[in-house]
Specification:
alpha/beta
């Protein structure tokens, strides 16, 4: 891609990817499908071999779904694996896909700054770390940008493009153009903790645990109600899939950054302490068959962790689980994290929602959303308010203005 604009890329254009793990491998496959050649960097041969084997597996899966074997072989031939940065002067765009450790990324970006040509764009695939902090590790903060792919990157359509404080408009434009050239829905998101989609997802995931803890519904009832309503997979099945340990780390991070409205359900910490992590330990909210790894009903060992009431006070409604997500959407709009018209599209592409939170708010009715939030926010018998339901000021203004919908 030396001296070639992204809009004029050819089959010979090369992108560098740092990290051949799960995300790095998947990003490579997405780049290959878009016609790019890839310079894939790892720290040692064993990691590189493992990454190449995973790429081969993903390409074989695409062949089974209709990709011509000859095309798969051609794409595979466009990968060049390396163990150092010596050839990075040949590329104008780098995507870092290393583990979520600020120290690891610091080392990588210092090396990229040294080896890459002065005009090269340096993108990080971080899902939560500060773009501005990462950019400060290079002497070209204006050319560092977040390029957050969703897992698996070769399938999921959404890419969040996140500028840091010093990122230039040209860098953002080139990042958006690269993602779009890969057939992605590329949405600019201003920098905030967990960015847009994972920030909103966290509110809904937490609320599902509070509902379970409080006895509003059972594991299976919550997941079924949510799937019937708007999601492709229930929140508890999704938590098992991703791992309770990962979920706890993300929840704690969001609580640290945003405060009490992101309060962490105690249930999650107790499950991690008991090593009930989900699919990786064959038991979380559900049990899993050790041979097939398929779900085998609710985990009987899990039920002892339920400390709340087990008697229902009424019919469970999936809408309540989405109230915090809807409220956070208004807070995100208030902060101008993204364009309002992009919010639903991002959530639908990133999470597979059939309708986004702003559409849900309009369907429920903004006035009714506010009324439900205000009722849930009120102080309990101990005098403590439920901070996670404090209505967003922008939602109040929409209702006061007589708006019936958001967009």
């Amino acid at each position: 891609m030396q001296s070639t604009e992204l809009g004029e890329t050819t089959k010979s254009a090369m992108i560098a990817v740092v990290g051949a793990g799960t995300m790095g491998s998947s990003i490579v496959v997405a780049l290959l499908a878009a016609g790019y050649s890839v310079l894939l960097k790892e720290t040692d041969q064993a990691f590189l071999d493992k990454g190449m084997a995973n790429i081969d597996r993903l390409l074989s899966g695409r062949v089974k779904k209709g990709l011509a074997p000859e095309e798969a072989q051609l794409q595979r031939s466009r990968i060049q694996g390396v163990l150092d940065f010596e050839r990075f002067a040949e590329v104008d765009f780098v995507i870092e896909a290393a583990p979520e450790s600020i120290e690891i990324k610091k080392n990588i970006f210092e090396q990229l700054d040294q080896w890459c040509n002065v005009d090269a764009i340096l993108a990080t695939n971080t899902s939560s770390l500060s773009i501005t902090q990462i950019a400060n590790f290079a002497r070209r903060a204006d050319k560092v940008v977040g390029l957050h792919f969703f897992n698996p990157a070769h399938i999921m359509k959404l890419v969040e493009v996140i500028p840091g404080l010093e990122t230039s408009h040209d860098t953002v434009a080139r990042a958006l153009e690269l993602a779009q050239s890969m057939g992605k829905l590329a949405i600019r998101v201003e920098e905030c903790a967990s960015f847009l989609v994972n920030r909103l997802l966290g509110r809904y995931m937490n609320e599902s645990l509070f509902a379970l803890e409080g006895g509003a519904a059972s594991v299976e009832e919550i997941d079924k109600a949510v799937c019937d309503y708007v999601m492709p997979i229930g929140p508890l099945a999704l938590r098992d899939m991703n791992g309770a340990d990962i979920g706890l780390a993300v929840a704690n991070f969001n609580y640290q950054e945003y405060g009490e409205r992101f309060a962490v359900p105690s249930l999650l910490g107790r499950m991690v302490e008991a090593n009930m992590l989900g699919q990786k330990t064959m038991g979380g909210f559900y049990s899993y068959d050790k041979e097939t790894r398929k779900r085998a009903g609710v985990n009987p060992e899990f039920l002892k962790f339920l400390t709340g009431s087990t008697s229902k006070t009424g019919e469970f409604s999936a809408e309540r689980l989405f109230l915090p997500m809807i409220n956070e959407s208004f807070l995100a709009m208030q902060e101008r994290i993204c364009q309002p018209e992009d919010l639903d599209a991002a959530l639908m592409a990133g999470l597979g929602m059939r309708r986004g939170p702003l559409t849900l708010a309009s369907e429920i009715g903004l006035k009714d959303c506010l009324a439900m939030l205000e009722a849930a926010f009120k102080a309990d018998a101990s005098g403590r308010v439920q901070e996670r339901f404090r209505p967003a000021p922008l939602l109040k203004r929409f209702v006061w203005a007589g708006r019936s919908s958001v967009l």
